[in-house]
Amino acid sequence: MESTNSNYVKRTQKDYSLSFKLQVVQEIEQGLLTRTQALDKYGIQARSTIRTWLKKYGNFDYNFTINHSMSKTPEQRILELEQQVKLLEKQKARAEFLAERADKKLIIFDMMIDIAEEEFNIPIRKKHVPELSKNIVKKNKKA
């Protein structure tokens, strides 16, 4: 006795294209769909699939989300604001890390240029200051 369900097709995350995943994440983050509505609309089989996409491709930090369906007591609001502060601190630390990394890359790049100029005895950097355009010079003389 075999029962077949013709509607059920086992899918994996590899079955979904990146553009599809990004579209679903964008619709959820814009508030156009809830996770459950996205499951029904697109035939996604597991809530964990969407949660994984949100963590991987989303703009928000889902570790600190709070359900906004009920009115909040002052204590709940304080907890929510504390979580927002943590999120902002995390984002600030990431931005500072990326800025420091970019500065280090710039220093290393400059050192590589210096070494290349010395090793091969060729000027790589431009050593002259560009001339001002004639319009700027005329304006400065009139003033």
Radius of gyration: 28 Å
How far do the termini sit from each other?
A: 97 Å
- Percentage of residues in strands: under 5%
Topology, number of strands? 0
Mean pLDDT: 79
Q: Describe the sheet with the most strands.
A: none
Low-confidence stretches: 1-5
Question: What spatial form do the alpha-carbon principal axes imply?
Answer: elongated
Structural class: mainly alpha
The succession of helices and strands, N to C, reads HHHHH
SSE blueprint and pairings:
Elements: H1 18-29, H2 35-42, H3 47-57, H4 74-120, H5 134-142
What would you note in describing this structure?
This protein is mainly α and 143 residues long. It has helices spanning 18-29, 35-42, 47-57, 74-120, 134-142. Residues 1-5 have low confidence and may be disordered.
Labels describing this entry:
61% helix; 143 residues; mainly alpha; single chain; 5 helices
Short description:
Helices cover 61% and strands 0% of the residues. It is built from 5 helices and no strands.
